[in-house]
UniProtKB/TrEMBL annotation:
Stretch forming the signal peptide: none
Organism domain of life: Bacteria
Name of the protein in its database record: Type II toxin-antitoxin system RelE/ParE family toxin
Species of provenance: Microcystis aeruginosa PCC 7806SL
Amino acid sequence: MEKLDANSRKSVLTKIGILKTCLETQNVYPPEELDIKKLKGELKGFSRIRVGKMRVIFEIGKETDEIFIYEINFRGNIYD
């Protein structure tokens, strides 16, 4: 997060905040609003949020509903 410019950091934190609020209030996440997709292959079990050209790879704790951020990076770099 430290390497992101202020606008990118704000966008990422906003999307994560929306996800957090939805989990706390409804115990679900809104895939349409956040453009969330479940990942396959080596990243099976993780999901991603699209934030412009960036991707946030995360998983939700099975017992705690905590959001664990795995990586934040640009689309071309994150799946390598």
